[in-house]
């Protein structure tokens, strides 16, 4: 979708938004809750140390597998994540297509992944025609269903494949990076951890994680529960401002334009960089200081200055999906565990996306009040 312009972009984006809009996502909060709880039980409980970054990538992939593909855990998921990892490695590799190179492995993985998605499209089509599947089941079923009811935004099979892969790439790395940075922050700054966990008041509204947990026995989190996690999401937004998963992206100039006395010609490639505005003290005062209160009134932030999710007509259609995924995950981590960083440095490099050399290793301790739902 990033390469499309004009009416084609509006048509494809409209189809994606129909699945990722809040009205649809409200139905999937419970599915995410179950995926997160299963993940915590399998990979966190009973362990003294965990590597956060690879675990978060596994979690976000499992959530995508469930909601995008409708695939339950098992061998198929394991094969898919391996293909996705090879494809991602190939995206940022040297353009040398020889059998032993990352690019070659990435191209082969991409071909296998596309073939797999095409088979899923055929299966969903047949199920929808036989009325044994619901268009709300997953993203592929939704896109196929929209094509029947709204011909103006109908997508070809190739377009569906392209956009499913695009959603996979965006959801696999960006959300997992955000959650990893949040875990790092909460391990380094006890005051932020305590505020997220403990009950406190904002305009007489009691919110945040332990208070929400008290209202639950075996019930899943709901959309209303997420709406009470205001401080947690402000912390996430400030984390995205200071450490955006994606530093920027390329755009192609469609026609000549003037900028600060310079002519930018048609056909040039330009790059927008998040840090140019995120760390501009004219927009965010004292930008190197972590200050979640900046996002109490988002309307006060000038347009196109906070661009962790892009902006304008091309703002990420999955930003609400990422919010739900992040809040559900942080809820179960902070209400069930305390942790500390095993390496005080915990610096990271960037291979397009941030990478921690030790996987962001932490030492975890279950809380006495943990309830196994």
From TrEMBL:
> To which protein family does this belong?
Belongs to the cytochrome P450 family.
- TM segment ranges: none
Subcellular localization(s) per the UniProt record: Membrane
* Upper lineage: Eukaryota, Viridiplantae, Streptophyta, Embryophyta, Tracheophyta
Where does this chain mainly localize? membrane
Q: What Pfam families does UniProt report for this protein, alphabetically?
A: p450 (PF00067)
Q: What is this protein called?
A: Cytochrome P450 716B2
Q: State the membrane topology.
A: Single-pass membrane protein
Q: Which organism is it from?
A: Gossypium hirsutum (Upland cotton)
Q: Which UniProt keywords apply?
A: Heme, Iron, Membrane, Metal-binding, Monooxygenase, Oxidoreductase, Transmembrane, Transmembrane helix
């Amino acid at each position: 979708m990033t390469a499309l312009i004009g009416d084609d972009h509006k048509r494809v984006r409209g189809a994606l938004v129909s699945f990722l809009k809040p009205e649809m996502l409200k139905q999937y909060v419970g599915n995410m809750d179950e995926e997160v709880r299963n993940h915590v039980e399998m990979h966190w409980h009973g362990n003294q140390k965990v590597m956060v970054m690879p675990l978060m990538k596994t979690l976000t992939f499992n959530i995508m597998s469930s909601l995008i593909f409708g695939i339950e855990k098992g061998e198929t998921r394991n094969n898919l994540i391996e293909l996705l990892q090879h494809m991602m490695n190939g995206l940022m590799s040297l353009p040398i297509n020889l059998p032993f190179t990352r690019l070659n492995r990435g191209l082969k993985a991409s071909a296998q992944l596309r073939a797999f998605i095409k088979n899923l499209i055929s299966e969903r089509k047949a199920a929808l025609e036989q009325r044994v599947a619901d268009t709300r089941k997953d993203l592929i079923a939704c896109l196929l269903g929209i094509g029947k009811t709204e011909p103006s935004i109908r997508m070809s099979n190739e377009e569906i494949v392209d956009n499913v892969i695009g959603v996979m790439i965006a959801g696999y790395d960006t959300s997992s990076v955000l959650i990893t940075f949040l875990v790092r922050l909460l391990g380094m700054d006890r005051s932020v951890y305590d505020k997220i966990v403990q009950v406190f008041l904002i305009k007489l509204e009691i919110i945040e994680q332990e208070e929400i947990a008290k209202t639950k026995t075996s019930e899943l989190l709901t959309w209303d529960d997420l709406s009470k996690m205001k401080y947690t999401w402000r912390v996430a937004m400030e984390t995205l401002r200071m450490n955006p998963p994606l530093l920027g992206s390329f755009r192609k100039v469609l026609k000549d334009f003037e900028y600060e006395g310079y002519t930018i010609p048609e056909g040039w490639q330009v790059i927008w960089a998040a840090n140019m505005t995120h760390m501009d003290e004219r927009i965010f005062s004292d930008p190197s200081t972590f200050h979640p209160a900046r996002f109490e009134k988002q309307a006060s932030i000038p347009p196109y200055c906070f661009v962790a999710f892009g902006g304008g007509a091309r703002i990420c259609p999955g930003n609400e999906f990422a919010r739900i995924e992040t809040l559900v995950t942080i809820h179960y981590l902070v209400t069930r565990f305390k942790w500390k960083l095993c390496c005080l440095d915990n610096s990271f490099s960037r291979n397009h996306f941030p990478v921690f050399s030790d996987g962001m290793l932490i030492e975890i301790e279950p809380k006495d009040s943990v309830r196994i739902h």
